[in-house]
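> call design_seq(struct)
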């Protein structure tokens, strides 16, 4: 899409049309991730043309300028699959209202050493390390040695609900991260529930923010 001027213009026009049709405040691009330096260059060009287009549209329609945000890798220069990649920093700084660095999936079958940490807004399970020093440590950041319940250690909210009920898991609210976690035996699960999400939404409203982001809706499921 970002390779040619015509394709970029078609994409930009369609995003503006959809945003206005549904009353959105802005647009978010989640490109994970440009695969090489050429695509990174195209990414920067796209952002520049996008910014020009939303400003022009706002002037013509006398509406507020649409926001442009993007999810990006947590490092500006990195190597994935033996390919070096570097983000167009100047274009990102000049054309985006907000960039959201992504750092996730610290556990998985792709890791040589399994570690665990809580991802806000995301459900992650782990197997806690069990020895004399750590067997009673269930707090966020406790050592872990492998995947927990669920597919590759990931559960929907309904699966978390069912796991907690079936295993009589201890459920804990963590006020620092404004999130929940539960544990039973060697298993540990971090997640958000209705109460923690509601607190985050109230926080966003109190600050007068124009929106908030969570990942991802497909994992919410339905809890009976």
């Amino acid at each position: 899409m970002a390779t040619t001027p015509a394709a970029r213009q078609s994409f930009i026009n369609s995003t503006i049309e959809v945003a206005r049709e549904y009353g959105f405040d802005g647009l978010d691009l989640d490109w994970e991730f440009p695969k090489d330096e050429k695509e990174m260059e195209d990414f920067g060009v796209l952002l520049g043309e996008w910014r020009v287009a939303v400003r022009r549209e706002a002037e013509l329609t006398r509406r507020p300028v649409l926001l442009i945000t993007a999810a990006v890798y947590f490092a500006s220069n990195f190597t994935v699959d033996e390919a070096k990649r570097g983000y167009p920093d100047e274009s990102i700084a000049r054309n985006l209202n907000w960039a959201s660095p992504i750092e996730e999936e610290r556990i998985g079958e792709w890791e040589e050493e399994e570690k665990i940490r809580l991802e806000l807004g995301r459900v992650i399970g782990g197997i806690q390390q069990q020895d004399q020093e750590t067997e009673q440590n269930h707090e966020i950041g406790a050592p872990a040695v492998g995947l927990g319940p669920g597919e590759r250690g990931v559960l929907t909210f309904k699966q978390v609900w069912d796991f907690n009920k079936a295993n009589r898991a201890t459920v804990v609210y963590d006020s620092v991260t404004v999130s929940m976690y539960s544990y039973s035996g060697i298993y540990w699960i971090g997640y958000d529930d209705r109460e923690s999400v509601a607190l985050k939404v109230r926080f966003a409203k109190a600050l007068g923010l124009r929106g908030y982001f969570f990942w991802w809706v497909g994992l919410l499921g339905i809890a009976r």
